[in-house]
Design a protein that fits this description.
mainly alpha, 5 helices, 69% helix, 0% strand
Amino acid sequence: MKSTSTAATAAPKNNRGVGTDLAPEAVSEICESLRALLADAFTLHLKTKNFHWHMTGRHFRDYHLLLDEQADQIFAMTDDVAERARKIGGTTLRSVGDIVRHQRLRDNDEEHVTPNGMLMELRQDNVQLSRFLRATHAVCDKHRDVASASLIENWIDQTERRTWFLAEIVEES
């Protein structure tokens, strides 16, 4: 298990007053994984909104609406990820700087990205998010955290659907 460097990320020494029977070590490892997942969700949400705002071309309306829908779906999972960590007695992200320290997906600050380039990049990021979700699911399974694993299964399905839509569009281009 990877050790954490700040007291803010440590699990409580006991679980009094917390709605879980998970061991403190389990809470720490699960929350560490959820924290990175949350940072990636915020990163992908903002990138999707960025591309939504900067979309151009003959398919503007369709892509603009698709990316807005996908961004909303990604943002919807953020509260559940953070609250899951809190429910089991852990902590979650506290700032934009915290997101930056934990994100694994890359930002895109380019001045101009082609519509096809945007869709290809979002498709790849969603594929990567699926991998991160599965890795977090494995951590939850290891500690028998079925509630977190159940939520993650739904997010995997949503992420795979977004990936499918983007892949179909990119293949057609």
